[in-house]
Amino acid sequence: MNELPSRRLVLGTMAGGVLAAFASGGVAAASSAAVQSYTPPARRVRLGLNSGWLFHKGDVAGAEGPGFDDSAWDSLNVPHTWNAQDGADGGSYYRGVGWYRKRVTVPENLSGMMLFLQFAGVNQVADVWVDGVHLGTHKGGYSRFRFGVTDAFTPGKSGVLAVKVTNAPNPDIAPLSADYTFQGGIYRNVSLHAVDRLAVRMLDYSGPGVYLRQRGVTESSATVEVKATLFNNNSTGRSVVVRAVVTHANGTVVADRSTTPQTLTANSGMDVVQTLTIANPRRWNGLADPYLYRAHVEIRDAASDTVTDVVTEPLGLRSFSLDAADGFRLNGNHLNLHGVNLHQDRADAGWAVTDADHERDFALIKEIGATAVRMAHYQHDQKDYDLADAAGLVVWAEIPLVDAITDSAAFTASTQTQLRELIRQNYNHPSIVFWGIGNEQRSDNTPTNKLLDQLASLVESEDAERISTYANNLGNDAGVAGHAETTAYNKYFGWYGGSYNDLGGWADKLHAASPGRTFAVSEFGAGANPAQHALNPSAPSSGGSFHPEEYQALLHEASWKQFAARPFVWGSFVWNMFDFASDGRNEGSRPGINDKGLVTRDRETRKDAFYWYKANWSAAPTLYITSRRWTSRTDAATELKVYSNASEVTAVLNGASLGKRSSADRIFKWTGVKLRSGANTVTVTASIDGSTHTDTVTWNLGSGVSTDG
Length: 709
Hints:
- With 709 residues, this protein is mostly beta strands.
- A hairpin with a 2-residue loop joins strand 43 (648-653) and strand 44.
- The protein is globular, with a radius of gyration of 28 Å.
């Protein structure tokens, strides 16, 4: 099954709402206006294959064979990675081969349907067999991939699925290197999908096969081009009708169009494009109203008047743009894009995170009040993009072109494939506005610039409506910064040099030198170990063992104030939302961990800087005493600092009032505070939105410590 389109049928809206066909002699017909509600018929079957796997770490000859003895292998479920522990201990971690085997029985009632095996993510190269027959190889550790297995499985009979995975370094596949652990394994979901032989294509870079191109979205009208990629896997031709239906979330129809019957010959494909117009659309409007329509495409066998396939995709109607003077606009209105970078790593599980883990992460991102997420440094699981759609978060999605390239045809082809997979698999997510073509290339040489130029052109050809971007760290005018439509900069003022107060001056200088340039800051931040503390510390050594929580907070206080005063910076993304595994690091007394997260890797501790952003970004009442984990004190003299979005905060120490403070910057301070020997209870109170809120901490001053002035 080659799934190559043999022709293209384009249906457009003409004057008076009449649909017309522009290829293949087709004529479009509007569905009955009497249709008020639509429930898509269930035509596809999905079988989860996450449970009951056997695993062996290391290479084994003959493990693809159905008769291979795997009785001594480990039993486990996927998602799974073999680097969950050694990938975050600060030593070396295993980069090599691992084998997975599983017995699969396809239900008999799926006989006659087309079967596709789907892997949501395997790092980095996967070879797949069924009963010893090699289905193929997928290269790249982050995108979804599928194999047709109709002939490999016999419904009603058991077959052996074998997968050889390697995360060994490969010069032909990005990333070659990066500041995170490249964890190996089948670390996302595995499933089997059954579809009719007359269906939307499954093998279009494993995309949905239905692509929703928003041609124009205003307050009064939205025009959507619905492209359906079909394939007839039957041995004879079929007369096909394609229907496109857009509904509200409750199923109420807002647009509905069908083609007249078209002949699709045996074992051939066709693309059908229909243009639908939605009057007075409810637009996807970020956090304020992330409204999602549903777009459904039906494939109907005209001869039998039978619906053979239905694909449903989210449709969030929105427009966006960048302006060099005032940054990002969503639906014509300025929106400050402030947010976080996100890695898929988690304590104990590594990359093998569950849907519940993804949901917990996005609950924390929502709690902090972010408006945007950069999903670094690779394609994330579909669950993340779904959650961003529903939450109203603007997303920067990117490929794993990090640090360096190999100047070879194989590397170029592999990187282009990863970009096509990213775009096609995620084309319909309204949250995605930016396609990232790379991060922090260390060289500004000709091969690197040539590849980046090709990738920027590929974004334009695949998805002209969205914005290509790049994260640069080679200087304002480096060649690598000149290919994408907009550029962002990774700037670690106050951590890898300079002062955290330098950020605003740098941005002003760049803006003054190039007033027509749009730019963002894609990374900034500092490390923090929440068990380490100091009062108003100076900058620690970034590679040293002492990363006090208070310094990270000071850096972020200064950084956000500078961003908030500069609307021409279209976005700012904290590095990182969560601490993550980077096995080559040994700093902050936490080997194997990049500790720049606002939340610890186990998601148990929100660091002080988390609440600084929450007080500034979120409308939720926030009242938080900083340095709360600094419970054992050796100095009686200290200060009390509180983050809050209240107008006034009152503090009490050991029952005695410290007075009331007001603040214009959401930082409330009491200096000259004296602790007594033993336990000291601090309580702060504030009225926010008509309700009283309180926070309390206890600090213990060791006995024998002088409390005199």
